[in-house]
Amino acid sequence: MYFVIFLLFIALTGWFFMGPDMRYMLYLLPLFGILAAYGVERVLDDNEMKEWIKNIVKGVCIVILISNFVLFFVIFRSDVELWTGKITKEEYKALDTPNYWVSQWINENTSSDAKIFFANNDRVYYVDREYLTGFGVFSAYIDYPKLENGDALYARLKEIGVTHVMVETKNEKIILLYEGYDDEHTIQLLTELVENHGILLYDEDGFRVYEMK
User: To pair with 12 at 20 to 30 A between CA atoms, which of 37, 163, 197, 204?
Assistant: First the structure.
């Protein structure tokens, strides 16, 4: 058991250094909290510690608690709006997941056996259809560097049964959503794909859905 925990610790720590993101280190925060609480307790229980130092420590703790309370309502303001009935549940979902509305459209306007290719978007939480994401770093189905043009990508998608393609756009162009997830070659392939082999069915709020010919 301890060996498994140790391996998990090593894996998560290595993941953080390969792709720095605070969420990969969340498992350490309880430890920091325990250490901080222990230090505060030691200071306050130390009879030899000067009173003004103890007052500073108390003040810092109060400021941290108040700031965290305020920060909670800033970070989770949409949650507060939902709790108070200011926004609907659907509007709340759309705030956190911009492709929520297009996902609902897909659920309501495609057949149950449709297979959706999320070309440059991976938020598929509300899609009730078979799907695959198109990010090169995640996809084991599509080897973009080996594809010369949109025709080759179309042939590959038809081979694996894709019926529809969803793309995220900005200023009428397919966007590079995350640096390192896609590159200009991939975007060019996707652009050629939808222009030459797609029938536009949906175009709202920066999202487009194409049916493959």
Answer: 37
- 88 in Cβ contact with 94 (< 8 Å): no
* Local structure of residue 23 (DSSP, 8 states): G
**Low-confidence stretches of the chain (pLDDT beneath 50):** none
Together in a domain, 179 and 113: yes
Same domain, 101 and 206: yes
Those residues whose C-beta lies under 8 Å from the C-beta of residue 118, and which sit 6 or more positions away, are 124, 127, 131, 132, 133, 134, 166
* 112 and 61 assigned to the same domain: no
Whether 57 and 115 map to the same domain: the answer is no
Same domain, 29 and 110: no
Asked if 139 contacts 153 with a C-beta cutoff of 8 angstroms, the reply is: no
Element (H, E) at 116: strand 115-118
d(CA 128, CA 108): 9
Range of the domain at 163: 97-212
Give the number of residues written for the chain: 213
In angstroms, the CA 92 to CA 136 distance is 30
Sign (positive/negative) of CA torsion 79, 83, 85, 91?
A: positive
Number of domain units in the chain: 2
Domain assignment present for 59 = yes
Tens of pLDDT, residue by residue over 69-115, are 888 888 888 888 888 888 899 898 888 888 999 999 999 999 999 99
Residue 84: inside a domain = no
Q: Which of helix, strand or coil describes residue 170?
A: strand
